[in-house]
What we know:
Largest sheet: none
CATH superfamily: Ferritin, core subunit, four-helix bundle
Structural class: mainly alpha
Order of helices and strands: HHHHHHHH
Number of strands: 0
CATH class: Mainly Alpha
Radius of gyration: 20 Å
Number of domains: 1
Helix content: 55-70%
CATH architecture: Up-down Bundle
CATH topology: Ferritin
Strand content: under 5%
Amino acid sequence: MWKYEKTLQYPVNIKQPNAALAKVIITQLGGPDGELGAAMRYLSQRYSMPCREVQGMLTDIGTEELAHIEMVSAILYQLTRDLSIEEIKESGFDAYFVDHTTGIYPQAASGTPFSAATIQSTGDPLADLHEDLAAEQKARLTYDNILRLVDDPDVRDSIKFLREREIVHFQRFGESLRQVQEKLDSKNFYAFNPAFDKPKTKR
């Protein structure tokens, strides 16, 4: 159960619409390393973690990623509001406009729609936590690349906040990986059902 607070995790106040920026930032909504995939990944993986502390951490970060979906969507909305048809054409936003007008639709910067195929949930805590560490680094890199393309200080402010949170999440996943490794031993190293790896005996 979640309690929704009607406020963004960090304020988004963009004064100047810019559809060209929206075209690249949208990848952090529905791209392969975006916030939608992160939320779904962590909120799915939490069920198979062997200790409640790591389950709770995945719930916390998965919930925060939902807040980041909201932030990225607010950035996209503010970058595309009140655009004229001429501005849409000049910015190259016309292909998106034909399908979605200026509605918020989860896709990558390439135009590829969001797909759950970009995320992983294996049921093996070691595999999943290594996946999560890599996911946070890829998301951080994507924000780095966005910052290389963006001059607007209002947009940069929100993007820099989101980038910082990726670094924090990476650190927390590292702590969780160490915690899980300390709890596992040679008998249950692969998740917590070693029977999967034992040969079946004949009756």
